[in-house]
Design a protein that fits this description.
Structural class: alpha+beta
Helix content: 40-55%
Radius of gyration: 60 Å
Strand order of the largest sheet: 6-5-9-8-7
Number of strands: 12
Distance between the termini: 144 Å
Amino acid sequence: MARYLTETEILQLISTTHLTLSFFRLDDPKLPPEAENMLKSVASSREITSRVRDQQTISGYALVDDIYGVPSLMLRVNASRNIYAQGQASLRYFLFALLMAGISLGAVMVLILDRIVLVRIAQLNHSVRRLNAETRLSKRLAIAGNDEVAALARAMNGMLSAIEQSQTAMLESEERFRRLSESSFEGVIIHDQTTVLDANHVIEDLFGYQHAELIGMPFFDLLAPEARESARAYFETGDESRYESKGRKKDGATLTLEMQSKVMPYQGRMVISSAIRDISWRKMAEEALRQRTREMTLLNHMSDLLQTCENEEETYSIVINVCKLLFSADSGQLIMLNASNALAEVVALWIVITGWALLMRAFRGPKRKPRRHAVQPRPSTTRRTMLPALALLSSIALAAGSIYLQTNAKQPDG
C-alpha cells in the first residue's frame, strides 16, 4: 500500500511528532548544498546520520525509499539540544560550587595554619630577632609545646649552647694567649699576611707605633722594602723555622729581625702568629767579634814578621802595613813616644790619593842625617828612643778593640 506525501501529510507529521521535519527530493536539481553534502554520508551508510548545527540545534538525516525500494527522498529532522544545555548548566553550577568549596576550604586552612603554625613561627622569628640584638649568648628561645616548631626551638637552643661554649673557650684561649704574649720578652704579632690583627707591647716598643696604629695597618709595612718579597715567600711556604729579615721602624730606621711564625686559630679563622726578636745587637757583637779576631790574627802575623827584622826601617815598614790593614781609613800616621822627654813624634804618615799611596817616613838615630823622601821632614834636634813596636801597637789595638766593643754593647737595640 502506498500514498502520496503531500504538504498536508507533512504538516500532520510535524503536528504529531512536534519536530521540525524537512523533505528533499533527491532528483531535485535545486537540492540545497547541505542536503548534497549529507547525501554522500547517508547513502554510503544507509543509516541515520546526525549533525550539530549550532549550540541550540541538532539535525538528523535519513533516506526514504519509494514503492520500488529506491531512495527518493531525504528526511531532515531538527531538534533542540535541551539536554545538552541542561548538562552545560549543570557543569557550570558544579564548577562554581567546587570553586566556592575550594575557597572556603582554603580560608579555613589558612585560618588553621595561622592559629597553629604561622603564629608560632612568628613568635619564633621574634625571639630569634631579639636574641640577635643581644650581645650575650646566654639567652634562649622560649617556645612551649610539643610540635615541630617547639622541636626547632629546642634544636636552636642546643646550637646556641654549643656556640656559647665554643665562644667562651675561644675567649679564654685568646685571653690566655694575650697574657702570655704581654708577659713575653719578645714581640708577638698576629696577622693574616696582609693586615695586622693584634700585637703586644714589645712590638709597640720595637717599631715605635702605638697599639691603635698597629691594628689594621699592612703587615709588610713593618719590613724594609728590600726584605718584603722574601718575607712574603717565607709566609706562603708555611715554614715554621726561624727566619731573619730587615725591619723598618716608624721613624724609618732599620733593624735586624729574627722571626718564627706558626698558623693558629683566631676569632674563628686561621691566622699567623709571629714571634719577632731584635737581633741587631747580636749582629753587631758578631761583627765586632769577627773584627777582633781579624785584628788578633794581623797582630800575631806582625809579631812573626817583626822577629825577622834586621833594621829600624824594616820594622817601621811592617808596622805601617799592618796599621793600614787594622784601621780601615784612607790616611793615617804612626806616632812613636820619646822615652827621654815624654814627647810623641810622627815617624810616618800615609795618604791615599786617587788610588796611589804616598808614604812619608821620617826617622833618625844618633849621628844620622835626615832621610829625604817624597816630603822633606822638619828638622829636629830632639833625640828619641824607639819603644818596642810590637808592645806599643798591641796596646793600642787592644785598647781600641775594648773601647769599640764596650761602645757597641752599650748602644740600645734597634
